[in-house]
Amino acid sequence: MVNPSGARAVYPFVAIVGQEALKKSLILNVIDPSLSGVLIRGEKGTAKSTAVRALAALLPEIDVVEGCPFQSDPHDRRAMAPDARARFDAGERLPVQRRKARVVELPISATEDRVIGTLDLEHALKEGAKRIEPGLLATANRGILYVDEVNLLDDHVVDVLLDSAAMGVNTIEREGISFTHPARFTLVGTMNPEEGELRPQLLDRFGLCVHVEGLSSPEDRVEVVKRRAAFERDADAFAAQWREQTETLGADIAAAMARHPMVEAEDSILLDIAKRSLAMGVDGHRADIVMLKTAKALAAWHGRDTVVAADVDEAATLALPHRMRRRPFEDVVR
Amino acid sequence: MTSACADYPFAAILGQEQMVLALLLTAVNPAIGGVVVRGQKGTAKSTAARALGALLPPGEDGGKAPFVTLPLGATEDMVIGSLDLEAAIANGEVRFQPGLLARAHGGVLYIDEVNLLDDHLVDGILGAAESGVNRVEREGQSRAHAARFVLVGTMNPEEGELRPQFLDRFGLAVAVEGAADPETRVALMRLREEFDRDGHAFAQRFAAQQQVLRQRLAQARRQLPEVSVPRRLLAFIAEICQRNHVAGHRADIVIERAARAHAAWNGRAEVTADDILAVAPMALLHRMRDANPDMPPPPPPPPPSDEDEPEEDEEDGQGDHKGQDDHTGQDEPPPPAEDESPQPPPASPPEDEVQAVGAPFPVRRLQNEGTDRMLRTGSGRRSSTRSATRQGRYVKSTPRRARDDLALDATIRAAAPHQRQRRQESPSPLAIHIRPGDIREKVRERRVGNLLLFAVDGSGSMGAQKRMSETKAAIMSLLMDAYQKRDRVAMVVFRGQSAQVVLPPTGSVERAARLLADLPVGGRTPLSSGLEETSKLLDQARRRDPHVLPLVLVLTDGRANAGLGDGPPHEEALRVAAALGQRHPQARFVVVDTEAPGMIRLELARKLALALGADYLGTGDLRAEDLISLAKEHQSW
């Protein structure tokens, strides 16, 4: 398994105690990556990061053009970086590598160059030619871009992130380089609201939003400590202990993904969604679209081919809370 | 299979007639000067702007008209053009590498989130847009090339406004918002569903309609030169602009051009009053003199000379105006808070009453927003500053060495012309010979948000006559401003026996707002204690960042009646204030007097301001326009 955060063993997703909404929102994003991510709000120490890192093991395998730093899709011309596309157009058979989609972490100290890409220093000096050194947006293409403490991210990095999250494309116009490559990623962010809110614009880019809190039952809390201790004592043994459940979950997700394209929603369901959005006074139409997608992903997850009202209920709790129409603090001013 | 949103066909955009029309009109007549689309997130702004690219008629040379996207992170050299690196290195040739402005010539320059674009880029673009020529004076090059393009920008006003000069450069402006009826929303979801399922098939389905649009556009462009405007209608245009007090003559010109495009789009060779009424709101929305760009559009203009205008045309036009009205008005400065809060009779407020927040209003700027020369750290948008860390936007390069932040591109460009000679002088395995004199460093710039510290009087005297409600409105307005500027905020409240830091410095302006709403009044006024707490907070802030520029707003009526020691509380407060002012020369203080006007005024707050070396304002003053000049007097800020 590819884990860019290091060789450290990863706590199994299925071993996380409680936090059902968090887990489900992540799973839904695996089923339908076009849900465009989750914002996880909550205090410190509530398994936010653990869950996101653990998710890597559950991600599906994808085909990429071997050696392509932009994770070009060998089967879709439009999802290729310029280099791969040129080779494709020239009739070359692109080498295919099958690997898991990745979770790429964007540290909050990251500079703009590092995020969007920059001039390749070594190449420029040795060859006298300019070449792009891909940034995190390239690495995260077709995977998950994870930003811990996303509300502390530097303002101009947020702007850049918004730019490419909106278009699914990263456009670089800097340092003598003019370059565009696909950058479609699922944005997963965590934040502690005490340290500042997100700009509404960025907030809206997260498909779903969940609030996590510390577990309230003493039994659960004890269980968390026990499992953590077991994991730290022997990570491999711990993983083995959870392997069966991990595999079951993986199979369930795979089944839901297979079913997902078949899921249909009737007009009455769509009308229900539209009315909910209007009642909540959301901005624009993204809430409707995300709610519908979420409801469909939920139906697929529950093994159904049609969306039912309960799916919409659940989808609304995930897709609406962060989209209520308000100016920066209208809820407070009232 | 997901597809890039660039592929969404223009013809498949549902509703948003104004936006669609504005985009088509600029495509018909690029001389209109572009469109800025303002609106909430998720209203297909970007989708529509990008979709326009596929419809553009071919450029002058017959080739495909360019549609160039300007990303927010672009560097200056890439926008205006610079030395061609590879040519310089390989052949020692000084060749110009055209920038985005050159690439956009004859087509569209599209800027998403245009209000977030850095000022230095804005200036370059403005210059070219204004003259149609891009002048490059850098790296030993001096040249100019034609750069005529249509500017299309999208923005969400929540994130801050555009500079008025920049706004004015856009010929038309339209405001968009989401559909209000469920049926339209359902139709939109279905379209999106279909598009997401198979973008290619979706494009196929709309191919015929796209083709119709494309042809109509090309036809309109051909017809445009022949479209004439009757003389009496020119007077009508002038009258519209006059009535609405728009600054300058650009609106007149734009309306004329847009009306001609509108006529051509509808296959007519002569402009009618109808055409003018259809386009005028779009030309006026962002040009009304009374500052607020979201202002309601003009009242329907009087009928033009009625000889040959059918009556119904008139009505159509008015309908358009009303449609605009629905959306706007929300940002209009509301009247001072009076309404909502059910208030007890003002005479004797009960202890610990919580007054509602009055209606907020736009605040005038509280300080200079120019770039200072000092290196600072931080993030925000109130003041821009040169950045001392490697964070911040790479703006341009400098030969001055201060840090190890190499601007490689500029360094190579500096070295490039000498390559041939140096290669002969000394062989090296590297492709480029760089000498110390070539080295350029990056100049980075970032906006620094300031610390906004509120010291709020929560005593019983503030409860009288809704004083607290108005004070809260003032703070709320400042908080809104702070949000857009990404300031950090902190709040100290003094009431009863002591002062409390209710909100340590935080980026969460929302939290401050929430606290504010729940802030009670009651008890005595421990002003000295409030000032002391403020001083401690400022110390902390300075320890965290020595270059911080705090703005301290003391909101009080100045009636100190609880002291730290035994002396008269009021005199003590003035002493503490003087010490505070001296201790923190880097901070700027503003005392906002909450004493109600009209009464016999004690003007205690004015004395406090004097002792503190602070600016003195009444709550009413916060909403006036002249604060800018006040800020400019303060060179220290």
UniProtKB/TrEMBL annotation, chain B:
GO molecular function: ATP binding; ATP hydrolysis activity
SMART domains membership: AAA, VWA
Comp. bias intervals (Acidic residues): 305-317
Domain VWFA: 451-637
Biased composition range(s): Pro residues: 294-304, 332-349
Pfam families found in the cross-reference section: AAA_5, AAA_lid_2, VWA_2
Low complexity bias: start-end ranges: 376-392
Listed PROSITE patterns: VWFA
Region: Disordered, residue numbers: 289-400
Basic and acidic residues composition bias: residue spans: 318-330, 366-375
Gene3D superfamilies in UniProt: Magnesium chelatase subunit I, C-Terminal domain, P-loop containing nucleotide triphosphate hydrolases, von Willebrand factor, type A domain
Family: Belongs to the Mg-chelatase subunits D/I family.
Name of the protein this chain belongs to: Magnesium chelatase subunit D family protein
The species this protein was found in: Magnetospirillum aberrantis SpK
Lineage: Bacteria, Pseudomonadati, Pseudomonadota, Alphaproteobacteria, Rhodospirillales
